[in-house]
Amino acid sequence: MPSQPSKILDTFPNPQPDRDFTIHIRIPEFSCLCPATGQPDFAELHLQYVPDGTCVELKSLKNYIWSYRNEGAYHEAVTNRILGDLVAAVNPRFMRLTADFNVRGGIYTQVVAEHRADGWTPAPRVDLPPPMRD
Amino acid sequence: MPSQPSKILDTFPNPQPDRDFTIHIRIPEFSCLCPATGQPDFAELHLQYVPDGTCVELKSLKNYIWSYRNEGAYHEAVTNRILGDLVAAVNPRFMRLTADFNVRGGIYTQVVAEHRADGWTPAPRVDLPPPMRD
Amino acid sequence: MPSQPSKILDTFPNPQPDRDFTIHIRIPEFSCLCPATGQPDFAELHLQYVPDGTCVELKSLKNYIWSYRNEGAYHEAVTNRILGDLVAAVNPRFMRLTADFNVRGGIYTQVVAEHRADGWTPAPRVDLPPPMRD
Amino acid sequence: MPSQPSKILDTFPNPQPDRDFTIHIRIPEFSCLCPATGQPDFAELHLQYVPDGTCVELKSLKNYIWSYRNEGAYHEAVTNRILGDLVAAVNPRFMRLTADFNVRGGIYTQVVAEHRADGWTPAPRVDLPPPMRD
Amino acid sequence: MPSQPSKILDTFPNPQPDRDFTIHIRIPEFSCLCPATGQPDFAELHLQYVPDGTCVELKSLKNYIWSYRNEGAYHEAVTNRILGDLVAAVNPRFMRLTADFNVRGGIYTQVVAEHRADGWTPAPRVDLPPPMRD
Amino acid sequence: MPSQPSKILDTFPNPQPDRDFTIHIRIPEFSCLCPATGQPDFAELHLQYVPDGTCVELKSLKNYIWSYRNEGAYHEAVTNRILGDLVAAVNPRFMRLTADFNVRGGIYTQVVAEHRADGWTPAPRVDLPPPMRD
Amino acid sequence: MPSQPSKILDTFPNPQPDRDFTIHIRIPEFSCLCPATGQPDFAELHLQYVPDGTCVELKSLKNYIWSYRNEGAYHEAVTNRILGDLVAAVNPRFMRLTADFNVRGGIYTQVVAEHRADGWTPAPRVDLPPPMRD
Amino acid sequence: MPSQPSKILDTFPNPQPDRDFTIHIRIPEFSCLCPATGQPDFAELHLQYVPDGTCVELKSLKNYIWSYRNEGAYHEAVTNRILGDLVAAVNPRFMRLTADFNVRGGIYTQVVAEHRADGWTPAPRVDLPPPMRD
Amino acid sequence: MPSQPSKILDTFPNPQPDRDFTIHIRIPEFSCLCPATGQPDFAELHLQYVPDGTCVELKSLKNYIWSYRNEGAYHEAVTNRILGDLVAAVNPRFMRLTADFNVRGGIYTQVVAEHRADGWTPAPRVDLPPPMRD
Amino acid sequence: MPSQPSKILDTFPNPQPDRDFTIHIRIPEFSCLCPATGQPDFAELHLQYVPDGTCVELKSLKNYIWSYRNEGAYHEAVTNRILGDLVAAVNPRFMRLTADFNVRGGIYTQVVAEHRADGWTPAPRVDLPPPMRD
């Protein structure tokens, strides 16, 4: 595992802290190693969060993701660990991480974990009709 | 039916038991036999669960699924039985199994069953806007 | 209209009556005749239900659907009638029928009808995040 | 604008007035003229409604839609006007009209308007899991 | 940043102010410059709003969007700023802006922000079943 | 089999006989009966032809296709028979018929047959690059 | 039919007459009237051509297409007529017109016609492997 | 391997032997065992052929395919063997078999083999423009 | 137009000059200005080429493409000019440029131009069957 | 670069050397390092070949691909090198390698290279009509 990840993850001040808004980041190029066999694993990550005081800086996020390339990591554990590191660095109002792993043994695995700040409540959802034509 | 399935299904400790998170496993290669005709049936399974103390180990899951290959099984019954075996082995907070069978007689059948642990309540959902472009 | 449809629709005992679960049946090959012009109409049907004591047997369902082939039927009426026949035969906790008709006069029509047993309440939905990659 | 549209829009009695059910009509061939430039505009309409005493007859609906072909109409106004005409003719429990206009100036516009009869409340939704495979 | 944007954004009176309805505008051609590198950035914008007294005029919206072409702008800040300008010009009951940026450094970013007028509450959603066939 | 099909198939004069051009007709609603079981079969037909003196009239084509609805017909034989009837009625320079049958027994069948008038040679193909974006 | 179409269709000089190159123009908004019923017809046109001395100017092309809006026109004849008008105006080395009409009577029709200048021969095609991933 | 496969594969006389035509059969449910590991393999087969005196009967083809379910078979060998059995049974003018195996070890394999009868030459292809809209 | 483009376009030596091979480069972010209106235009470019002595360096290609951002350019002329600049810089055996412009006035335009070195002939194509399943 | 790759690539005898047939292998998980920046690159490889005396063994192919994980490699050079190694190991009649790299700097690159054994000529292609419906 990369040591001191929160040092690697840089942040910048939230430009609109008076409003809940959502940042969705898709990272198709996550790769680590299977601890059991030493062979490469691949996943697409989706990070969705409502920032509080800070946002994650994208270049440092890319380097943080890259730091797992030669580390052994189980699917369930690594998803929760990345979420934990990001929460520690960004301290968001809400954050969800989805890790969508490539097929192994004919089986596809996806892990989804969430963090919610104490006392934070989302605004009631306004359901707009979805677009019906591309 | 395979005897003693809970012996075949291995587990490992949940790496983050203090948090509700979701594991989604897609298994495109389920096959069994039709009890009426003896001919092969095929389905894609989707297993979604919130682990409590343990998670299902993927290799044993693959072997468990494989053990149905030469067994007769009706769509509705086998979906509920697999869910029951997985609940017995993993004891999850929540589990949903979807079995999507190939067309027979011009008709497509899908069966969906859920288990919820007594007293477990999901956290209120945070509706993030879905991505709008691939 | 076919006479005595509930006799044609066979059932079998629900293998897991202690649990609410869902059966989704897709029938792409419904065809009847337009009562106004006598010309063929085509639709894809979706039947979704939560069984109580019995489930509908698929071969009899195929024959029941086939029995409309040379009958005149309006879109709105025939969707409600098929739902009524299926409810009478299966007596489900919940049932929804969707009929998706082919284009006529440059216009596409879909009819959706539901039945809910008195006193039945669905379990609160557990919203699992949808898979993000195929 | 077409005069006396409610006369053009024919109806027939709802065949199942004791049950809330939904009719979804897709009309890909709406065309009118831009009031500013006189040039043709094109849209795909989606009409979704829960009928009360009557349903809209499809041939008259086609002719009503056709009557806008050489009329000038702004996107926002014409969507609300068509909804108003249909509500006046059909008197539904609920009706939603979506107008999805073709790109103009590199921008795509969609307008969605709804009508709900006084005192009508929809039945609580039963969330069935969506199909996971086509 | 463009000066006095609310002057550029023209409006016209809402043709149906007695009813909440939704306008969805898709703008695939947003482009600005990266403040760090000076290189072009590209995004697709989705604007969804419920108008109150006025609607945004499309040609002025196109010109407003175009005014960012040679301005430096960070993803998170520019999304919130455009929403702010549109809210100031249109004063809607509700407005949501989604900005879907092109990939940079192997990472895709989407920002979603909303504004809700004080005291406005959306009507309870009527969930119509989605169409099941294209 | 329908008797005297060439009488049913009406034609009109080719409006541009001095030029080879292609007419492609897609018919998603072909239905006949399986001679072995008496149950309905369904197919989508594609008719592609280069007319000589006459073109097939669409309403008579629709009625001709409809005339198979209650006839028994094997996949391979009926495709060749329909091609033969159309060639007899239209006398084209070239004609290809594709019949794409719905799944039966887990197997999908498509039959393709062609007719070419004696002495007719197609112009050498000009390969234009296909569009690369929708 | 519009009178003197070649006057409506403006052209500009080919900027690279020493090289065969291809222009592909997609026009999703063609509409005319059915001569038999007077009702609107709709088609998507694809124009592909190798210019010689001139290219067609897009605004005049849009107006030319628009001029058919209230004219009666049969599918096969109008496709050949538009091709003829464009050939007369542009005098290309090669031109292909595809007209893809909306469904009528459950049947989809597409007409494709080509013109090739006397003595023109396309360069032998260089078959590049198509991209395998989007 | 199944013994005497050509006895299992029934045929029926070609209904149009005076014309080359093509039969395309898609079989999504092929399964055999990996000779190395004993675990199940899955493939989708495509059989395309130009019949001479006989066609393959579909029910016997289904049973023949089914007979591999518990046999060990390598991808490359089994594709060629099935083609050989079908050629021996049907004696076609031309036959192509494509076997599209499910992913193993992160790698997808497809094998394509063809047989052509001595002296048979296909008619020169008539290239019709492909449809441009679905 | 950018001055001295061939100076901007850097190259590197072809690593395998003894073999014809193909490089396909997709550039979704081309933007220039319309010379008539001064408004932005957008296109996706596809560059396909068989290198001879040199290949184009990607970073300089990105900067070259970027240099058109504030230049006026007509669709047909700019496509041929970019091809000319690339041919001058890289001197390839074969090169094809496709420019796929965004919709304007309801019309989509794509321009395709090719260059072939004197005396170069492509190897005869080996047609491999395309994959049939994703 | 991995040393002695032809030692890593195992082969097995072609089970049907008397017939030209095609093996298509898709490898979505190729990863190497950018020699300029040291950052990871990702590609999907497609290997298509007509075997002569031997076929490539899949497990050794997986390990060979994996051996590039921590090696620096330029797109154009590495594609040609992998093709060279595979040709040396398998000695095929024909082989094509496609490498489809992930986006870098807003630009997508794909490299395609082929090898053909001296004196080998493919059989003339039999063009079967492609399936028209999924």
What would you say about this model in short?
Ten copies of one chain form a homodecamer. By secondary structure, chain A is an alpha+beta fold. Chain A has a single domain, classed as GTP Cyclohydrolase I, domain 2 (2-Layer Sandwich).
Arrangement of strands in the largest sheet of chain A: 2-3-5-6
Percent range of helical residues of chain A: 10-25%
Corresponding CATH superfamily of chain A = GTP cyclohydrolase I, C-terminal domain/NADPH-dependent 7-cyano-7-deazaguanine reductase, N-terminal domain
In DSSP terms, counting alpha (H) and pi (I) runs of 4 or more, how many helices of chain A?
Answer: 3
What CATH calls the topology of chain A is GTP Cyclohydrolase I, domain 2
Kindly report how far apart the N and C termini of chain A lie.
42 Å
Which class do the helix and strand fractions of chain A yield?
alpha+beta
Strand content of chain A: 35-45%
What's the total number of strands of chain A?
6
| C-alpha geometry of chain A | globular
- At the first level of CATH, what is the class of chain A? Alpha Beta
Radius of gyration of chain A equals 16 Å
Largest interface chains and counts: C-D, 27 and 27 residues
Describe this structure in words.
- The structure is a homodecamer of 134-residue chains.
- Chain A is of the alpha+beta class and 134 residues long.
- Chain A has helices at residues 5-8, 58-66, 75-90, and strands spanning 11-13, 21-33, 40-50, 54-56, 94-101, 108-116.
- Chain A has a single domain (5-116), classed as GTP cyclohydrolase I, C-terminal domain/NADPH-dependent 7-cyano-7-deazaguanine reductase, N-terminal domain (GTP Cyclohydrolase I, domain 2, 2-Layer Sandwich).
- Chain A contains 3 helices and 6 strands; from the N terminus they run αββββααββ.
- In chain A, the strands form 2 sheets. Chain A has a 4-stranded antiparallel β-sheet, covered by helices on one side. A two-stranded antiparallel sheet of chain A has the order 1-4.
- In chain A, strand 2 (21-33) and strand 3 form a beta hairpin.
- The relative contact order of chain A is 0.21.
- The model of chain A has no long low-confidence stretch (mean pLDDT 91).
- Chain C binds chain D through residues 22, 24, 26, 48, 74, 76-77, 79-80, 94, 96, 104-116, 122, 125, 131, and chain D through 14-16, 19-29, 51, 55, 58-59, 61-62, 123, 126-129, 131-132.
